[in-house]
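OP here, attaching both records as promised.
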Amino acid sequence: MKKEIPWELIISELKQDISDADSKRLERWLSFGENREIYEELRGVWEKVRAEVIDYTPDVAFYWKEMMQRMKECEEAENLVVKKKSTLKSFRRALVLSMKYAAVFCLLIAGTFFVTKHYMSEEFGKKYTVVTAPKGQRVKVDLPDGTVAWLSPCSQLRFSGSFNNKDRIVELDGATFFDVAKNPDKPFVVAVKQYRVQVLGTKFNISAYAASPEFETDLLEGAVYVYDSTNAGNEILLKPKEKAVLWGDKQVKRPSDFNNEEYLKNGIVTFQSESFGKVINQVALWNGVHFTIKKSVDLTRKISGKFRQSDTVESILKALQGTTPFKYTIIDENEIIIY
């Protein structure tokens, strides 16, 4: 058995955002000796903690305690059995004794779905569920009707406790990809800013952060009706591979090249002939930072490329320097000057 444990590959696999190349690397590691059984043990710990811990707790020590308790339970259960594989027993013992390895695993757990803020709120006697994706992370949400929503970083999704009883309405601040479960009797509606996006069953992406004047809806499958709740004449019907964007205060239809497969599988964002200004604005929204951009930078320059949404701001800026001539100075974690 190989001694090195590929923690990052295992965590990416558990988060379901592992790349094809990393998936092959993990499979090669799993093919050696007892590695697959070790992986299954870790996956079991992951799933148990995930299932039992609901409330947001940004305390790494808490996750360390949770994992150690699961390890202890495994050991106690194992002691009741006379015959067990010594390899796995040795691994568990080594893992418990190794603060370095277990701490790494707990830190990675604390840095993924557990930093998602998932809480209940109440307004006028009506209960709501609110899910917030942290900086640099995507969050998958399974709605009660079977719809799946992938929240982009710094996005928030809210829906009432009565969701799917009489209607299917969610409120969004940010960007989210929706794979909507079909139900002809209950249209699925996304309320975002003054707009409403209504569907029966389809796949589409919405980008509409409150901190940005931009609003965009990309349709992949089915049909989408987008309308302005403050202006009855400002409405549009989208077909697959079309998107609705704002032209001034009016919606217009444009071709869409949104690549959801690569985005959902690996968290990789692809852009083709997009203005540098739009791309850099998205980076700012995903990471909760403010860019002060000097006039010398050409924001209209068309660029193409891709990067992982979970990459650090600095690594993304360095990648973008390959498409547009600019320099940057990091003032602090919330302020960056581009010149």
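Record two, same layout:
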Amino acid sequence: MNIEILLITIITSLIFGFAALAISFNLQRKYELNYVKSYFYHQILIFLFGFYGLLGTISTHYFLIDIDFKGEVIGLLFSFLPFVGVPFMITAWYMFIRISFEIIEKEITLKFTLWFFIVVLIVFLIFGFLVPYIEYFIVDKLEINTHVFLFFVLIEILTLIIVFSNYFIFSNYLKDKYKVRFIKLFAFVNLSLYLLSVIFLILGENDLTFIAGYTMVYFFKDIIPLLMLNKYLSINYIHPSNIVAKNTKESFIERYGISKRETEIIDEIIQGKTNKEISDRLFISLQTVKDHIHNIFLKTEVKNRVQLTNLIRQFDRK
């Protein structure tokens, strides 16, 4: 790997890494959601492993080769460099699983958490015991050793199976079909970027340029999903202070004789949805939405959405 490729890899990867961190940090400040906070912690761990395990190893290898260091001690150094960064990656995998549970509104159990870390820890310790006998980076070629490659691939495959089962299968149990569609699109983009990184990793066994490509994709792959999440939440997020109490809404519905469909539309109005968004969400025509809103305004004798929302909140004080 020449110095130009090394510098481009480091600079580009750091730009992508800091961009993903900045986006996830901003999200967890704006939205009080568990999976958004988990995503931020996931990004921190991803960055730490990438910075230490990938960029650190590649950079150190380049400079050691440049001054022609060889021998058993150097071989051990390259074996241990990525090994010490593995705990960051293991925890990042766990946080990735946690996000998938939280986004489909399920709790990740303590039993599952314990079993995940026990299994991975056992594999990790076995790998640590064997590390003096397997070179992760061979000093004269920089080839990824098959045993270590399989360690990462097997654990990541297990993680991805759990995560994408939640996204593509168990998300169907959510009542909010608009959210289900978003989750599946979000999962598809995530999966595509993960597959791209795997392709670069496999090709990198024989070509160092692909190792550089894998490293940059590794840091970049969360940016697009984070931007998608930001757009989705900017439209659909309801701050806890804006939620209308159930008994408040029920009293309002009873007082004004609001129908079931009108109630669904009122729920969307309270969340700040436009007529077009309500139409898409409830699978009814735009004109039907306008007709229902007109009827709601007639029944409640209000002239706009703000007056309607304020009228509903008045029932909380009665």
